[in-house]
Amino acid sequence: MPAKRSSITPRSRVGAIALSLGVLAIIGAEQAPEKSAAPIDKGQHVLILGNSFQNFVDSHLKTMADAAGIKDHVRGGDPLAVTKVDVAAFNPWFRDHDKPDKYFDDLIERGLKHNPNIRILAQVSWLPYDDPIFPVPEKGRETNWNGRTIEEVRKNHAAYFKHATDQVQAINKRHSKQVVFLVPTAQAVIALREKVKAGQAPGLKTQDDLFSDAIGHARQPVELLNAYCHFAVIYRRSPVGLALKGAKDEKLNYLLQEIAWKAVSEEPLSGVKAAP
């Protein structure tokens, strides 16, 4: 069943950030980062801080870590969470080139203060309303998820992808090392939409099967795809072949894994390199 969706919207993040910064205040530093190409076998303490396009990743990640035989994966919200966080994942506001998400910058500064080796993950999300402008939501607004060609969808995301890359590169340059790693979720979602449109996604008839409302909240296939992308970036290993408990369709699950791994391994800022 899909994870329960939060009431937090992509535009409401101030309260969530205030809480997350308080949590990060107790983060310690013990573990140096691994080499980018090396898979991580040790369970990571992961704190998911994003909005309703990301928060469901938390529970799916635990299931995926268990399926991969990774012990001691710790969720940031667990009562037994210890003294450090290895990874903090957020969904920044990358829509504007000249207006970086100041809450994201605050998160990075606070995280580095308490753990110099923390990895900050920045999710690149699919566009709300399938619209590059993303105007203020209108009551009763509808989105035709099947109305655009995949070429149009990619074109509409192009500026957003560039903004994300430029901002993350600037942050990493400012800190003289890679602090922020991109999670190419939107790229993976577009690839899945292309498969659906071509009739190559088992059990999915139209792109309406991917989104639960006009703004674009995820149904289970997109939830799992997003979580697989995070898993690949966090553990620097392919999710392909994981037997995921609760997956409704094994063939679809395998396709989601393949799409996620391709997107992550092809993203220069993911910190992941596919095996030659």
Descriptive overview:
- By secondary structure, this protein is an alpha/beta fold.
- The chain has a single domain, classed as SGNH hydrolase (Rossmann fold, 3-Layer(aba) Sandwich), CATH 3.40.50.1110.
- Helices cover 39% and strands 7% of the residues.
- The chain has seven helices and five strands, in the order αβαββαβαβααα.
- It has a five-stranded parallel sheet, sandwiched between helices.
- The longest helix is centred in the middle third of the chain and has 26 residues.
- The protein is globular.
- The chain starts with 13 loop residues before the first helix and ends in a 10-residue tail after the last helix.
The major β-sheet equals: 5 strands, parallel
How far is it from the N-terminal to the C-terminal residue, by CA? 36 Å
Q: What is the CATH superfamily?
A: SGNH hydrolase
Give me the Rg, rounded.
18 Å
Low-confidence stretches: 1-35
Strand order of the largest sheet: 2-1-3-4-5
Which class of secondary structure composition applies to the elements? alpha/beta
Order of helices and strands: HEHEEHEHEHHH
- The number of helical segments is 7
Morphology call: globular
Name the average pLDDT. Answer: 84
Strand content: 5-15%
CATH class: Alpha Beta
Work out the helicity level: 25-40%
Could you give the topology of this structure?
Layout: H1 14-24, E1 45-48, H2 57-67, E2 74-75, E3 87-90, H3 102-114, E4 119-123, H4 150-175, E5 180-183, H5 185-197, H6 220-235, H7 250-266
Parallel strand pairs: 1-2, 1-3, 3-4, 4-5
Helix pairs in contact: 1-3, 2-6, 4-5, 5-7, 6-7
